[in-house]
User: Fold this.
Amino acid sequence: MPEIKLNNSKLVAPCGLYCGECLGFQDGRCGGCLLRKGLCLKYSKICKIYDCCINDRKFRFCNECSNFPCKNFKFFIDEDNWIFFVVKNLERIKKIGIQKFLNEEVKRVEGLIDCAKEKGIKHCSECKDWPCEKLKRPSLVPA
Assistant:
């Protein structure tokens, strides 16, 4: 596995996802949303959230917008209400700042990586014990 540099604020996408958790980042296939300018590994179209936030409105995070959360967040709504996960991240960033949020995420993801290693798997997405105390929602994989 390539050296992983998790403590980089550019790994926090405009929507609030922390790309350092994703299998695509951890295995070196992807540098994260900002580096790829809103393009995900599996799709050739730019992310609507990225395009709106970064290109159209010139914000760093969606929570800077008076329309937040908007219809573009419907992408995150599923049976587990993921929208609350990304909205919670953006609310946390607004409250404590990007660096403290990033420090929390790095610590959390380092724990996930260590857990996966202990179980002999490369990423949480391969874990048969999910959901667990460390990850109560689906793990991030390239969309």
In short: The chain has a mean pLDDT of 88. The radius of gyration is 15 Å. Residues 98-118 form the longest helix (21 residues).
